[in-house]
Amino acid sequence: MRERAAWMGLLLLGAMVAVGLSVGNQHFLTLTIQTMILATLATSWNILGGFAGQISLGHSAFFGLGALITRELWLGGQAFPLAVMTAVIVTALAAFVVGIPMLRFRDIYFAIGTLALGVAVYITAGNLWPGISSLPAEVLRSYDFTGPYFFALGALVAAVCVSVWLERSRLGLGMMTVREDEEAAKATGVDVFSHKLAAFVISAAVATLAGSAFAYFSVSYYPNFAFSVIWTFEAVLVVFIGGIGTLAGPLLGSIFFILGRDLMPTDVDEFQVVFFGLLFIVVVLLFPGGLSQAAGRLLGRAGERSTATDRPTAARGRS
Amino acid sequence: MSQLIAQSIVSGVLLGGVYGLVALGLALSFGVLRVLNVAHGELLMLGGYLAFFAFREWGLDPFVSLPLVFVVMFGFGVLLYLCLFRFVTRTETHTRIKNSLLVSFGLALVLQALAVRFFTADERTISTAYSSEAFTIWSIRVPMVRLAGLVVAIVAAFVLEWVLHRTRFGKALRATSEDWTRAALTGIDVRRIYQIAFAVSAALAAIAGSMVSLGYSVSPSIGLGWTLKALIVVVLAGLGSMRGIVVAGVALGLVESLSSVWIGGQYREVTALVLFLIVLSFRPLGFFGRAAGA
Amino acid sequence: MLEVEGLEVAYGDLQVVWGVSFRVDRDSIVAILGPNGAGKTTTLLAVMGLLPAKAGSVRFEGEELIGLPTHQIVDRGVVMIPEERAAFQSLTVAENLEVGAYTPRARAEYEETLAEVYEIFPRLAERRKQSAATLSGGERQMLAIGKALMARPRLLILDEPSLGLAPIVVEDIFGVIRRIRDRGVSVLMVEQHVEMALEVADHAYILEMGAIVAQGTGMELEADPRVQEAYLSL
Ligand SMILES: Nc1ncnc2c1ncn2[C@@H]1O[C@H](COP(=O)(O)OP(=O)(O)OP(=O)(O)O)[C@@H](O)[C@H]1O
Ligand SMILES: [Mg+2]
Question: Fewer CB within a 10 Å sphere, N or C end of chain C?
């Protein structure tokens, strides 16, 4: 059932692609690519945050690492697909190594810990690669949106496929058991730590794809920009607004976010942030199912899954 | 070289005092409400601007405006509690902390954007007639306006400890932070305690902001950095004692400034964050070993 | 004095109390007995306003308590000692007693009440500077009761006061409960020590699966063959 919503989201994107390419409207193309990059990143965050229930605030580190490695190798003369593959492998390894200590932290301590890690990596990246990274003239001459376009689309499809697979596999099921109740999961024989670690590594690998797409698409940027906490924030924002723990949530949220931002008055930039910030708060407090739940209701389906994040609870305090 | 080290020790201690001051407020809201307010740094930022504009527009000296900043941001804290955090505290502890993290994260984005809109992205510093004054011991410069930050932190810690241990309200507050259900059964109006504790937490952040805009500088984007500092300090010190928090703040300031001497200035933040991760890994389940103020 | 009628309570979708009714008369000791998970604690928490009632009413001296916040219910004179370690560990004995008298009504009589409590529990007076965390199990229960008395209750509610205590200490606690009643405080208690509870109780209710299945005076219930079989003849 809920897969249908996800495929509808993809279809919508596909339509955007078709329209964008046929019309050749640069602005529309840019928006679509941005949407797909964000949707890929959000989907990757959702694997860790939505499926396994681990709220990470350091996700930008993997996006940034993916962008950095891809860009350096690619501009250094490697074939682009090879650069991407290397980036995915290196980032997944890094996630594995970092995940072992980080995942010992539980709940918000994990959130705080990953935030600290993300900020530390961001500062370090800025120190090590202070110069701006621009596409060289010969690449720029032949640059058009087609390549990034299809790569971003491929990355997104891959991200959704991984999510669909996880939803159906034992591994994904185990992650959701961990999300609902670690102790209970342990009691039923689920290896909590390795499920968390698997979610962490898979999530990082998929985030790398988003980073690669960003590296492919961007003409010039400071390397540390890809490590900026903003990426984490946007992913978290989009996942919650769309509906955490669902397949469609990250897609709907990204479309809504990028298009919404574009449609808003541009003379007051801050207005967009205020709007999405408030919307995010409202979603967390009142609509823990996000847009996809609202959409599901509109389509006459009963609410999808409730999130791990909110549930009316008895006033019986245990502290 | 030793001259340089001595000088950076002094700067580190002075800055660390402000870290402690920011962390006091965070420990209060975290300890009592079990609410992790990652917009704490943004409250500091607002307090800093308040002091700055009070100085620029009305010529109010930042020390004169300190009570004003406290009261205004106390009111703002009440408002935030009533509009946002009240709803968060309706859920049980586990959900509560997670939701408070998310809600305050949204709040941080909003406050920062509004600050850019209304105050511009420029860095601001209050420059009073005495801003450049300093005294010198053994040829180490101690700037007065920065010393003030440390002094305010120490005073705030002692006042808080006095309230927590010597007043009936403070005892009720400690009781609530230990177990709100039992506190309610004792006849304590838990929501009122929450409201006041949160408001004081906001006001403390704002006071720290005053000191930051006097001794250092404020801009709309400083929030996250200060929130992280406060978190680091609270993790280092635990929620046990207010004095301990100021001491931990000073320690963090020291470590940072020494690391910038030895490793390089661009890594001082990274050192602090790594130190934080190391300390956290010794307390993977967090810092609720003891209740606030106990 | 307390009249509960048709009380229903649920945790989310899971209803655990199904139309419970009982009453506590002035100057009496009433016991609610029943197996684990019957919904006894849930009932008490709903009376105290800590859990929302789905249906029913809770009247104290004619006034409806449902809808009042807990601290106001305490201010009316209904004070509950929750299960296990009801005192605050991070406070000293004296501080516990001080916050015990938090409501305005109790605060006005703080000095006299404190003297009374120290008279009932001289042990607490000896340990007043000590942290509550350092007390023994029995002392802790004394502190919990003393703290509740500081609130000047007219109805004292106790949830399993004997839980985890040695038999002699349990005797003491029941003795204290009698003394409290004799001072004009009505008592409602939930107990697992059925025999002893029936001995002190003027009236008792048996709660099973969220519903009252039997009631009567202590002696009537002691004589009831069903009660004997289920609770007494182990
Ligand atoms: N916070 C909660 N959320 C969901 N269900 C709960 C909660 N607390 C209790 N329950 C359930 O409600 C039922 C009644 O519990 P309650 O604690 O009221 O029983 P009790 O009679 O006090 O038992 P005991 O003698 O063990 O204290 C039990 O089945 C229990 O599992
Ligand atoms: Mg019980």
Answer: C
